[in-house]
Design brief:
Elements (H helix, E strand, L loop, with lengths): L2 E7 L9 E10 L2 E10 L3 H13 L16 E8 L6 H10 L5 E4 L1 H6 L1 H9 L3 E4 L12 H19 L5 E2 L8 H9 L3 E2 L4 E2 L8 H11 L4 E5 L3 H16 L3 E3 L1 H13 L2
Parallel strand pairs: 4-5, 4-10, 4-11, 5-6, 7-8, 9-10
Antiparallel strand pairs: 1-2, 2-3
Length: 264
């Protein structure tokens, strides 16, 4: 009695053009015949293929490290998830020097210190998101990253009345899941080109030197609220201005670059 064994196995996963290999093995006593038949799977498999392909073809928008290299400007930024005792001293210096900066605020910190967030916006500074709980974003899924970003955004919007549009990922981690989550949530991911490494709390002179020796057109400076940062801030502002740099926010820097690119 003849037996028919039909085995369906894909040539590869996924198979281009919806082709599948159907191996039909005919078993008849001692005789073994193998027939290879190529079949075209239509409609359902074709639709599935296009859906799968569109998901895999998602492009990842690269983070922003700096602005226009032809613009003699620099943006000072400050990531805030601790160091609240140094925020007001920093604000006092920035107000005295008439400098607006971009503060990237953590969601849980903002919940604890909404008055300081309002103080920042009241003095004309720009507010961005630093995520909600300061995890390692590269260790999270895209959905988990989206939850972190959106939760922080809702808190900041409740405090300031404005939804932030800029996102500085904790630890500067920038994997595909992080960047896609930020973009899909309506944020632009901001990193830096000049790192003070002030979280290590070196002397003020070290911080000043790190900024002034690396200053360049369109530079984005990363700071944190620390005591040596407060001590270094007046000399940083003075030194950058002496070198001809205009100090602006990240948002202003991006707008200038966009305007330049749109110009005929």
């Amino acid at each position: 009695m003849n037996k028919y064994i039909v085995i369906h196995r894909p040539l590869s996963a996924p198979v281009p053009w919806g082709r599948w290999l159907i191996i039909i093995i005919l078993v008849n006593g001692a005789r073994l015949k193998v027939f290879f038949v190529l079949a075209v799977v239509v409609l359902g498999l074709t639709a599935w293929w296009w859906q799968w392909g569109s998901r895999c073809a998602q492009t990842v928008v690269e983070p922003i490290y700096q602005g226009d290299p032809d613009d003699k400007s620099i943006a000072l930024t400050c990531n805030v998830f601790w160091g609240e005792e140094y925020v007001v001293p920093m604000l006092e210096i920035l107000t005295k020097e008439q400098v607006r900066t971009t503060f990237f605020i953590g969601g849980t910190w903002a919940k604890k210190f909404p008055g300081l967030v309002r103080e920042m916006t009241g003095r004309g500074h720009e507010i961005g998101s630093h995520g909600y709980s300061h995890p390692h974003p590269d260790g999270l899924s895209k959905d988990a990253n989206r939850l972190e970003i959106n939760k922080a955004g809702e808190i900041l919007q409740d405090i300031t009345g404005v939804k932030p549009s800029l996102f500085a990922p904790p630890y500067g981690e920038r994997g595909a899941a992080v960047l896609q989550a930020a973009e899909e949530s309506g944020y632009r991911t901001i990193l830096w080109s000049i790192d003070t490494i002030d979280w290590q709390r070196p002397g003020a002179e070290v911080i000043i030197n790190r900024v002034l020796t690396k200053a360049h057109n369109g530079g984005i400076v990363l700071m944190h609220p620390t005591e040596p940062t407060v001590q270094a801030l007046p000399a940083i502002i003075e030194g950058l201005r002496e070198r001809g740099f205009e100090l602006i926010t990240v948002g202003e820097m991006l707008e200038r670059e966009e305007d330049k690119n749109m110009a005929p």
